Amino acid sequence: MKKSNSKLWGGRFSAGTAESVEAFTASIDVDSRLYRHDIMGSIAHAKMLAKQKIIPSRDARKIVRGLEAIRREIDAGKFAFSPADEDIHMNIERRLTEKIGAAGGKLHTARSRNDQVALDMRLYLRDEVTVIIESLSVLQRELARAAKKHLDVIMPGYTHLQRAQPVLLAHHLLAYYDMFGRDRERFIDSLERINVLPLGSGAIAGTTFPIDRVYVAKLLGFPRISKNSIDAVSDRDFLLEFLAASSILFVHLSRWADEFVLWSSQEFAFIELPDGYCTGSSMMPQKKNPDVPELIRGKSGRVFGHLQALLTIMKGLPLAYNRDLQEDKVPLFDTADTVKASVRIMGEIVAGMKVRRERMREAARDGFMNATDLADYLVERGMAFRAAHEVVGRVVQFCIGQGKRIEELSMAELKRFSDRIDKKVYNYLSAEAVVGRRRALGGTARQNVVRRLKELRV
User: Domains of the chain by range and CATH?
Assistant: First the structure.
């Protein structure tokens, strides 16, 4: 079945669009959220057209007033979006013509939906990235505050998920501070590629009208202007870069969420998550489930999938614009929403978690995590490290058989393995001593962590 109503681009066609095609190709249910950015770009474009005397100033003033009125209509929820008008651009232009008459039809002079949507996406993403950068700063501040609050808490450090060496909890938290710092740097750096004005590129080849792209860039706050019209309308690298940065961020969020899940289990019992960020079981009344960290861990798959989706869309497209690019918005919007919500809620969780410091410290005493320090002790007394490693391995084997920790062995028992050992060895073997001796730059020693917190001005 075909519809008879005309499109704003319908002059070339003798028949209307099939209803099934209208439903299949419409994007208004997705891209309607671009309305503020679309109107912002259109106002700048109208002002430029008037400045360059491409359209009369009175028409430009009508257009600007009409667009501002439409923005208020949409803000108030009074705008009737129509799938027949396909996308946000055509919906706004249709309404503008209804409100101000023929002058509304002059707005699209010297531009195409191709460069218009590229502009909208850049304006939108610039705003979203700015919010994400600030959210990451807030998350980092919460981590730094938690590190300062729990400065003297010792916990097991893990490799291969096996207890390895004791570390300060603060040092562990600041590892995530550094991860999120790199994420923040990536988003900041991406703004350089996002902040490029594509408007003025037309559909593919530019325009014959004497437009002033520098003026538009100034109005919209773009420090750079695209140099190639073909690339400008088909470029989605800035979206791929955002999705890639978001995917790396979600690697970090997911790893941290996984630790929250582990640490809050009865087997670890290192922390207790705030009640408001957990749920219960519909069947087992005793359960307190870490659903929020689990969901964040799960949402990483969505974000990774969105990156793969857009890479797949882009990899086979000949220049320049193709309708495939309409599919870039769902990955972008959902990723931006997911990143903002997840970063915010992780900050809330770390601010509200309860640390079970005695449980952490007790765990840090088990697992022979001072074995390397005993080897270092022997090295300081002239033994080669490989020989010391073998000696300490035999000590650990003996301890396992005796059901003792290394520091619980008597001097006579220790001397069975090396006559280089004396009473000073016990100064090396406590969890506090093991942590405190890691004074090399970047190590877990308390003095290093204190210095770092001062640098962070916590």
Answer: 10-109 (1.10.275.10), 114-362 (1.20.200.10), 366-455 (1.10.40.30)
